[in-house]
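Design job #97: recover the sequence.
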C-alpha cells in the first residue's frame, strides 16, 4: 500500500508541468494555480477554460525531452500508457510525478484544499477516498463561511 506524507512544498520560482489540457487536468491546474503562476500546460489541445490564464501553453504531443527543467510533473492525459511513460521518464530524471487518478503510480498526491489569504486547509484520505476528502473540505469550508472561525 502506498503511504503519502502530508507536507507543504515550496513552489515559488519553480516550474510545474501538466501534460494534458483537458477536463482531467483542469481541476488540478486550478488548484495549483492558487499557489504559483509557473505552470506549463503541454497537450495537443487545451481546454478553452484554461487558455489565456497566463500559463505557458505548448500545443504538441508529449516527448520525454519535454520534462527537462521541471520541478514537478502532473500526468493528466486520458491515455494510461502515455501517463505511465511520463512517470517512467520523469523517474529517470529524478522528477516527482502525480499521475492523476492513479495513486499507485504517483510520487505525490494533492489534497482537497481551502485557501484563504495566507491560510490553507488540506484534507486527504491518502488517495483512497477522494470523494470523502472533498466532502470533508466542503463541510469545513461551510463552517468557515458561516463565521465559525
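Job complete. Output follows.
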Amino acid at each position: 500500500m502506498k503511504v503519502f506524507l502530508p507536507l507543504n512544498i515550496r513552489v515559488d520560482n519553480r516550474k510545474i508541468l501538466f501534460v494534458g489540457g483537458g477536463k482531467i487536468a483542469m481541476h488540478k491546474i486550478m488548484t495549483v494555480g492558487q499557489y504559483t503562476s509557473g505552470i506549463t500546460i503541454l497537450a495537443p489541445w487545451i481546454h478553452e477554460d484554461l487558455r489565456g490564464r497566463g500559463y505557458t501553453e505548448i500545443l504538441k504531443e508529449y516527448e520525454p525531452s519535454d520534462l527537462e527543467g521541471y520541478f514537478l510533473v502532473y500526468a493528466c492525459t486520458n491515455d494510461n500508457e502515455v501517463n505511465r511513460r511520463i512517470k517512467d521518464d520523469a523517474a529517470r530524471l529524478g522528477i516527482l510525478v502525480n499521475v492523476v487518478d492513479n495513486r499507485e503510480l504517483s510520487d505525490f498526491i494533492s489534497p482537497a484544499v481551502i485557501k484563504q489569504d495566507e491560510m490553507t486547509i488540506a484534507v486527504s484520505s491518502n488517495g483512497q477516498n477522494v470523494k470523502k476528502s472533498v466532502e470533508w473540505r466542503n463541510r469545513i469550508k461551510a463552517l468557515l463561511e458561516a463565521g465559525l472561525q
